[in-house]
Each structure stands twice: as C-alpha cells, then as structure tokens.
Amino acid sequence: MARAATRNKKTKFQSDQEELKLRAAWHYFVEGLTQEQVAQHLGISRIKTYRLLAATREDGTVQITINSQAEPLLKLQRSLEKHLGLFECVVVPASEQTEASVSSVIGHATGRYLSERLEEGLSIGIGWGATLQACMNSLTWREIDNMTVVSLLGGLTHAAAHNPSAVAWRLAEFYKTELYQITAPIFLPSEKLASELWKLDDLKDLYERARNVDLALISVSDISKHASIFRRNLLTAEDAQSLREAGAVGDVLAHFVDNDGNVIKHPINRRAMSIDPTDIRKVPKVIISSGGVRKASAIRAGILATNAKVLITDEATAQELLRLPPVQ
C-alpha cells in the first residue's frame, strides 16, 4: 500500500509539473510575457521559470519554425547542390562550431524536414549519431498509418540514451509504428561471428528490408576522438589509427570509407552488424544529416558511398564542402 501511495504521489507530481511547464511555455512563447511576468503569474521563482522554459525546448514541447531564409543561404544551397550532385540541400546557420551547437541546429532542421515528408505506408531506415538524436526533439506529431521503421545498425549491450539503435526506437515510438532492429552488438569480436549471424533467417530478412526502404536518414562522422564511435569507446584510438592508415576518412553506418566512398577492406568493417552503406544506393531517397567543418571529407565520402541526394548541414560545413573536389 505504501509503495502504491508513493507511486501515485510521483505520478501526480509529474502531471502537475507537465501542466506547469505547458502553462509557462504558453505564456512566454504565445502570449509574449517576460520570464519575470510568467513567474509572477504562476507563483513560482524566476529560476524555476527559466528551467521550465529550457525543458520545453529540450524535450520538443516547443518547436520554433522560421518561415523565411536569407538569400546568401539559398545561394549556398544551390551551389552545393550543383557541386555535390544533390537533388536538394538544406543549409542552416550555426553560431558556434561546437559539437553540441552544430548537432542541435542541424537536428532541428532535420526533424522539421523529415516530419513534412512522412506519409502512410512509408518504410524508413534510420542511422544514428548526435545529430539524429537531436532530430527526434523536433518531430511534429500526426497520425501516420502503416509506417515502418528499420534500424540500420546494431546496438550496445550496455547503454543509456546513446545506443546506436535508440534513434530508430524513438522514431517508431513517437509515431507508434512497427520497428525492425538488428538485435546484435554493433561490433562483434570476430569476423566469423558476424558472418554467421548474418546467415540467420531473421537477420537476412531484416537486411533485405533495409535495402528496400523508401527513405533512409543517416549521419556520418570522421575518424577523430570527437566521433561518436570513438568518444563512446566502441572502437579504440589504435583502431582509429589503423583505419586511417588503410585510407579511411569517415564512418557511414559503422562502415569506414575512403575519399571516393569505397568501403575499405579492413577487419573492423567485417565485424560490423550494420547495413553496408553501398547497399542503400538504390533507396529512392537517402538523406545525410551531418555537420561540422572537420567532417567535410567524411560527408562528401558518405554522399559517394550511398548515392545520397539530400544533405542537411550547417553553413560553415557547406562552405568547406565547396572547397573539396566536386562529385562527378
């Protein structure tokens, strides 16, 4: 009885906090009250008001849409489309080139872009990374029948919010759709084990399903200590050095590629429980959502590896991409 009472109190507290957060957001973003006025109206401190408003941005309760775009950005988009052989490019301004800032602004743009293009019966393959994690906070809810989400990567046996398969799970949960996952660690200890697992009927079926999605949303990364795979110790610094020596410039779906988008011959690629990026080349729409100047070569390689025709990136990275050789 005591436990039940405690649970009920927690539930009521969470409900009250959610209502308070929504009221604060409405007064501030819709009615245009100052934070001090919101605090007075709700009978709470200004610091609590600030925290509530910050939470509404972080969890996607409040989403901001800008309905116009500066001419220089439009020109940059058109130049990049021509330079990289893209069908569409979205370039967003980023005031800072920190990992968090770039991921946040590109993720926001990606969430808006994706939400507008989801439709009944769509099958969508999903990669991972900080940008795609941020994207999930900017999705717009609407009911979509018969949509299917396919995770393009395996996961981790021990992880919090940054499990590679978590992005696909969050997308499927948000839109209440079916989810197909690679139920294996993203990197296995041996090539033989990975080869044997891919022979299982369920995983063979999933691989075929991944090849035939209608849309694939992925991110790419370079081979540095800042990259998710190395920052989260999925691979070591020694692995990174070995990959660079083999000609790798970036990671696309946990497969390492060279400047021309070729998946390099390396044991780590053969240990990966993820979809080979070259196997999604025939997907009707491949979207790369990624930014950061240091990733420019990896982004270009990712476009070549997957035949992506849509890129969502930041302004500084777009300018850096224009300095690289064009995609023929």
Automatic annotation (TrEMBL):
PANTHER family: TRANSCRIPTIONAL REGULATOR LSRR, TRANSCRIPTIONAL REGULATOR-RELATED. It holds the Pfam family Sugar-bind. Residues 71-323 form the Sugar-binding domain. Keywords: DNA-binding, Transcription, Transcription regulation. It comes from the Bacteria. Belongs to the SorC transcriptional regulatory family. One of its GO terms (molecular function) is DNA binding. The keyword Hydrolase does not apply. This is Transcriptional regulator LsrR.
